[in-house]
Amino acid sequence: MSRAEEEDRIAEAMEQLRVSYAMRQWRVCSLICESLAEKFRSMAEGEDRR
């Protein structure tokens, strides 16, 4: 394997790691947002009952 090919493979692996990290971050953010939305929904329903 040539040096250029090795550099390309390393760059590709780093890009895949970056994308994977970004997707994990998005998933965590999504779960937090869903949790907050559920909390606000239950609070609003509680106020509607008053």
Please tell me about this protein's structure.
The protein has 50 residues and is mainly alpha-helical. It has one domain. The protein is 92% helix and 0% strand. The N and C termini lie far apart (72 Å). The model has no long low-confidence stretch (mean pLDDT 92).
Name some characteristics of this structure.
50 residues; 92% helix; single chain
Q: Please report the total strand number as a whole number.
A: 0
Contiguous helical run count: 1
The average pLDDT is 92
How much helix is in the residues? over 70%
- Helix/strand/pairing class, anyone? mainly alpha
Largest sheet: none
Terminal Cα separation, in Å? Answer: 72 Å
Percent strand: under 5%
Oligomeric status? single chain
The radius of gyration computed from the alpha-carbon positions, rounded to a whole number of angstroms, is: 22 Å
Overall domain count: 1
Q: How would you spell out the order of helices and strands?
A: H
Any idea what the shape is?
rod-shaped
Uncertain residue ranges: none
